[in-house]
Amino acid sequence: MRPTAKVTAAGLAGSLAVLIVWFAEEVCHLQVPSEAAAALTAILAFAGGYLKRTPREEHPAEATQRVAPRRAVARGRRAVRGGR
């Protein structure tokens, strides 16, 4: 079983946070509190998972559903509002 794209993005973002903290401490000679490093890791992991879109092929139930074109949806709304 392979991880989904969202899980991979969240994992990479968490790893990026570790590298950012390492860079800040080793290269910039800044002291980063462990709580701040943990918060940065959580924020970047959340952002990576939230921003990554899930392809349809990763959700077999959704891949079989038929999606109405935008024009059809818009016409339906107009009909309900008063036929404009």
Structural description of this entry:
With about 80 residues, the protein is mostly helical. The protein has helices spanning about 5-25, 35-50, 60-65, 70-80.
Task: Kindly summarize this structure in a few lines.
By secondary structure, this protein is mainly alpha-helical.
- Report the biggest beta sheet as strand number plus sense, adding barrel if it closes: none
> Got a strand count?
0
In whole angstroms, how far apart are the ends?
Answer: 50 Å
Estimated share of beta-strand residues? under 5%
Helical percentage: 55-70%
Provide the succession of SSEs.
Answer: HHHH
Specify the overall morphology. elongated
- Mean of residue pLDDT? 81
Rg from Cα: 22 Å
* Protein structure class: mainly alpha
Q: Total number of helical segments?
A: 4
The low-confidence runs, each spanning 5 or more residues with pLDDT under 50, are none
Sum up the structure in keywords.
84 residues, mainly alpha, 0% strand, elongated
Task: Compile the SSE list and pairings.
Blueprint: H1 5-26, H2 34-51, H3 60-63, H4 70-81
